[in-house]
Amino acid sequence: MKATAVDIQNYLPHRAPMLMVDLILNIDSSSVETVFLVEEDNIFVQNNVFIEAGLIENTAQTCSAIVGKKYFFDDNGLENENVNVIGFISALKNVKIHALPKVGDSIITKADLVSKFTGDDYTLCTMSCKSSVENQILLECEINLFIQKTISVS
Q: Which Pfam families does this UniProt record tie to the protein (predicted)?
């Protein structure tokens, strides 16, 4: 499934102030590209700079869009309602932070699926990631994610 300018909230449970991706620019089964505008009131902004923890959260949320997609949409592309998932970073590898973006910068984050293991209600994956502003690389890393569907109690 390829998409252009898709609302990330269709793929993630995150909401403000912890939402660190604005739109999905492109997505398919093995890669995703997102954009995020750094705003002054962001919780990860200090002295007009988006700090390292924000870059890592942006990367994790970008990666989660591929993994989380299976829980939010059925095989026919129809949205599943009342889905709850929990996810976390299980490992960061080969992290290189080259620069930090400033307020007003738009971060483009690209992630490619390296490996994925899927159970009935969970997914483990490894993603290769790169974030940039214009032609300047900000972050490069590999990230392992664990995402699990949780049971809704009414």
A: ApeP-like (PF22817)
